[in-house]
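Problem: given the chain below (133 residues), write out its structure.
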Amino acid sequence: MRDIKNTLSYKWFQNVWNEGRRDMIDEMMNREGTFNDLVGDDHPQGLEGFKTFYDNFRKSFTNINVKVEDVLQQDDMEATRCVVTLTNVDTGKKATFSGMTFTKIRDGKIAVGWNCFDFLGMYQQMGMELVGR
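Solution.
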């Protein structure tokens, strides 16, 4: 049986997101790390770019909990399946949605992350109207 609690992905979601430990970003992500599919292509990457995304997300949502349901790991890659619950700061509306991540690990830290979260479902549950780009 897999022990997902020993994976970097599990520790990332537990520390950074569930416990709100922003300081763990520096310990768990490479300085030049890239994260895909969370922000537009014009958004800065690396530690500082991720911290900007993180800060903005936490300003908009509270009670963030990421339940890691499974992690598969092989060599320098991890794939994670999770369920996220959170509350919109402005409206108090809650949402629950699923997500998957794929993480490339280098020197014990996140080097590249690919993210696939159902943000559309999240916004729909909150009654938010999305406008075309």
